[in-house]
Amino acid sequence: MAGHWEVNCKGLVEDTHIVLNLYLKSLKDKDLSRDAVRRYRTTLQSFFLAHRVSYKSITRDEVEAWLTQQRAQKKERTVKDYLKTLRGFYNFCVQEGHLDNFPLNPNLQEISTPDYYWELKTNLPNPDNQLIVNQFLLHMKTLGRTEHTIVALRTYLQRIFKEIDQSLRQLTLEEIEQRVIDTHQQRSESARNGMWSTLRSLYEYCWENEILEDTPLRNKRKFAEATDLYWEVQGRFSIKENKDVINAFLLYLKNKRRTKKTIVEYGIVLHRFFGSNPLHFSQVDRKQIDEWFSLQDPDWSIRTINNYKQVLRSFYFFCVRKEYMAKSPIDLFWVEKNASKKYWVTDKVFRNPTNKEVVNEYLQSMKISNMSELTIILYKRALEIYFVRKEDDFSTVSFDEILQWVIHQQKIVQATTVNGRLSILSSFFTFCVEEGYMECVPIKKRWYMREPRPIPRYLEKGELAKVRQHAEKELLRNRIIVEFLLSSGCRIRELHLLDKKDVDIDTRTARVMGKGGKIREVHFSVTCALLLERYGEMEEVKEEEHPALLVSRTGTRLGMSRMRKIINQLGKSAGITGSLYPHRFRHTFATELLTKGAELDFIADELGHANLETTKIYARIPKWKLIRLYRRHMG
């Protein structure tokens, strides 16, 4: 088990983690009290988790910016203790030869200069940039921005312009993007977002004060408010007809009652793709689109890439519908597929490569066994927690080692979590025994903690009536979500994956894909059938070429997170006790069947339970509650 002085948390760069433990051990060896060492450890963890870069890369400005942020939230005495801790750590690094230069002024007593904190602390190579940035920071002060905010802006701008000889008036969007990539490739996504936000504010200030005629970076919100014709793109295009067709598409979105924010964002994406493109929109092929994406910021998240793809896909489908071109260069499933996303492979760095190899082999076997993606990801995370920092080979794990781990887990997480992780380890070690890597599973059944057996949370008859009453005020699509889940008992993922072709309104049945890729037939109510029939007759649904039953405003399959949000908001508006979530509808469906006398095996079939034991949770409802429920539902 780790000592009280050791750093033991995720998110730290490896060399930072090593040096921090060396420093804390040196404090322990000096006979500092346990509480004192823990205070040092907590401060240093907070500091380096906030930056997520090597301790060698931290600059003086970053240290001062962090301390200024802490001063806004904590007492001056506490912040001085933080400064003392950082000074002690960096003194240790210099003395032990881990660092050549000391990033803090040894005589520094104040966190930042109280006067003129809005001015740059270092001279930029270009005097014009120096003047403009200082004017911008002073402008932020006159707008009433806090000292913490201004110091953060100052730090970002110093970092981006400290090696640029060229005036910011002459920088192109491509040059700005490359500079952000060069300076932030090792930093967190939040730091990159902060940089982009700062640069947009700077260039917006320059544009508004006529320092620049136009800006390569435009604040989306201000851009939308700058003109009443927010659905028209304003930038330059290599081919005028591209601009005309894009404006026609954005006007179409406006007529479809898309929000102003959505239309402006679509315009920005399309301008970015077509603005400097020398090809007519109808001549662009899939290969050229893929090449364009490959030239963009490599740190783009999958979500950002998919958002861009959705915009291009919707634009080209519009062009086909309007007969501007015969066929879209983008296929229907381009956005939703992600060939590089191997969720069954861990990409964490393991101290012992053999452990990583066997963990990936086990996860691969789960994938072959057709286990669900969410289950595999859950198993992967639990195995990473146990094996990432383990230096010994997995085959050497003993009963005592697992028992000590269980005892430690019991102190920090709930019984349910402990049992879940222990079950995952047991499954992994069983796999290793079957493959001949180990002789026995080093886990005993008696180690599992006794868990409370909660009764499923369902909706009472009055609550159910309220939900349906408030659902009538919702969009037709949202009413279908509620009614389908309530009358079929489906899981939210099963509804998410449901296609139009799988629904038979005449027989009121649907073929859904459950856990493990198992297909089963479910039934839904007459009310739900009528809603589905009306939904299919809507003009925008007829025009939509996506096979999904429920489609978002952007023309893609409606996401599960969006469905959960719709249901949660409905619960709040209906005044339901506790949070309302999709699985509560499933519990309501099962409980109602039970009150009407349905057998457990029938309920298991309807719910798609592979194991009858899972269904028996509904049998734990007290008999007097069932009688009361029966009388409420049946009279």
TrEMBL record:
Residue span, Tyr recombinase domain: 454-631
Keyword tags: Cell cycle, Cell division, Chromosome partition, Cytoplasm, DNA integration, DNA recombination, DNA-binding
Pfam name, any one: Phage_int_SAM_1
InterPro entries according to UniProt: CB, DNA_brk_join_enz, Integrase-like_cat_sf, Integrase_catalytic, Integrase_recombinase_N, Integrase_SAM-like_N, Tyrosine_recombinase_XerCD
* Regions crossing the membrane: none
- Compartments (UniProt record): Cytoplasm
Its main localization is cytoplasm
| Record domain Core-binding (CB): where | 14-94, 127-207, 240-320, 353-433
The protein's name: Tyrosine-type recombinase/integrase
Organismal lineage: Bacteria, Bacillati, Bacillota, Bacilli, Bacillales
